[in-house]
Specification:
The radius of gyration is 23 Å and the shape is globular. Strands 1, 2, 3, 4, 5, 6, 7, 8 and 9 form a nine-stranded mixed beta sheet that branches. Helix 3 crosses helix 8 and helix 5 crosses helix 8. The chain has 18 helices and nine strands.
Length: 410
Amino acid sequence: MTAPIVTRRLVYHISGYDFTMTVEAVQRRFVRELRRFEATWSVTSSVTPPVISADETALDVDTNGPNWRVHTSYRFFRWDDVIAADGRKHLWQRVIAGLIAFVDYVIGGALWGYVRTNWRYALFFLYPYLLFAALVAIAWLAGSAASRLVGSSLAGIAVGIAAFLALMHWPARWLLLPQLFDDWAFARTYIRGGEPVIEQRLDRVARELSTAAQAGDVDEIIVIGHSLGAVLAIDLVDRALKLDPDLGTTGARIAVLSVGSSILKIGLHRGARRFHAAASRVASAPGIFWAEYQALTDVMNFYKTDPVVEMKLTAATHPLIKIVRIKNMLDPAIYKRIRRNFFRVHCQFVSGNDRRAPYDFFMLMCGPLTAEQQARSQDGAASAIGADGALLVGDATPRPAAQAASAMHE
């Protein structure tokens, strides 16, 4: 047994609302974390320079083990420009939009949904608003103290306003309050009809995905969404299904991976009817395999929840729920250093591992086993890859993509 199961793969990766992910940062992180993957799994790889378009940052990766080779066409969906545009708005526009989003999410039932399904995510939602309330309280206390000290209400009001402005322009920015408000404001915009640039971009990439699937030039197409990007990943596949209802039943295998996902961030809002319909269609599509990876230590995802169940959807099937232990993916010293950094822990879903583990982002993207094989295996690819990086188990003769996709769904 020497031949791999997958030799060519196409990946569409959609990140969350990450204001640090410029096109340059995407390449740097990908290459850096790929080197960790090489060391962990005893493989080698090479990466082409990025090709940047309005819709995507494209990289080609060749990964090699002693008896296998995979070519991955990696497409990082771009919405960094949309996030950057939000960040250029006046601070007070961002604050007002964030506060409106809070009211909308409370009225729409999302906050209660968070409390019911994952209290830690509810705290994550409340954090920027509690922080804002604390800054208001500090400013009010400063104004009250000044008023008593000088015996003038006007002086107290002036001091309170000055203190609030100072707090918003230093501690608030340092604590990322404007960016968190932007995140929730964008989520509200998505629920209430969508952001035009994102909508057009999803349509264009869906056409590209559909064409690639029909061509059958690759063995597998993976659409992976991280954090809020999982919502856009479901949306993308739904748009491709509208173009080709048989997507995945012929041509390339199609796998949707929602990792560290915020699907329920949107899905628990009563107003998210458009997204509910999209998720139901993707879950019901016979040619689509959907796996949802969750971790207890990641406060920004929903742990031990089935999004289809929690959204009360009618669907033919449900995503395969996989529980990830991030502690087991990292060197103990590294985990000890990052475990209190919630954002860094959250990003481990799209980073390289120090240890072989059931979930490995780069093994899913660049390894010889299909995403479904890895998801359905108790230990992912660990028992299939030897210490020297050789493939130990699998079909000795890779099947044509169309035949493989058909067999996968029997």
